[in-house]
Amino acid sequence: MLKRFLLCSLLLLLAGCHRDRPELRVAVDAGFQPAMEALRGDFEAQCNCLLRVTAGSSGLLYSQIRGGELFDVFLSGDMARPVLLEKAGFIVPASRQEYARGQLALWVSRQLSEKKSAGFSTLNAELASNRTELTPRQLILLLGKGKHRLVIADPQLAPDGDAAVKMLKKFRLWPRLKNRMVYAGHAGHAQILLHQGEGEMGVIPYGQALASGRGGQYMRIPAHFHPPIHHQLVILRNTRERSRAIQLLQYLQSPPVQARLESLGYLAIAGTGDSPDKAISPDGARVTNSE
């Protein structure tokens, strides 16, 4: 009986400590969610806080923020929505800064990749030789032949879907593919549709493919094939956790985390925010490195 009492007391104490930890409400583009989940334990230990992560398309999260949804930080998959929030006065001054640069991957279902056509034989050979980056010829060959359905995230809502459509138009593949597109709500939904067989191929964030590539094969699409995908972060004006929000920004921009993000499918940022010499202080004022 005494042991049971002590055990219950310990569990209640731990639960109470858990509740006492402050929460940072983070809205994150679904394409970056796998990376955020990989990093959250380390950050939570550093800040002694809990991350309450809400994932979705950048467009939908932007609409929720404009509609009054309470978040502390918005990790967008682009820079367009953060700019709009900044112009509308929704963010802490100087908090709009880049934290990662996205990449895309071509994902092919295992059933399709095992077919003996020339294009998929080439894909299998390249994967077997550990070459994981597509060439223009391979991209055109794989996407341009057959009647395969192609899954992407809704280009009106998801930056990776928008970049995918612009890439297809650049390589003059859009006329052949536009009637075979399957649109997902966001990057995570695109991966679900691919695993469910709703499409035989998909253009999804490279980080998403690395995190959940089971059931298919994938190759990275070189960044110069599509417009740059600048992931920007903003701290929302109404946050009550400004110091921890700034800590998250600084954590994501730190060299060790930037190096880790490269292993998670992202390109390191060239600098912080719109200018490398700008940073943000705990009170939200803009300062420079020379101060």
TrEMBL record:
Signal peptide: none annotated. It comes from the Bacteria. Keywords: Metal-binding, Signal. InterPro entries: ModA, ModA/WtpA. It holds the Pfam family SBP_bac_11. Coiled coil: none annotated. The keyword Metal-binding applies. Belongs to the bacterial solute-binding protein ModA family. This is Molybdate ABC transporter substrate-binding protein. The lineage of its organism: Bacteria, Pseudomonadati, Pseudomonadota, Gammaproteobacteria, Cellvibrionales.
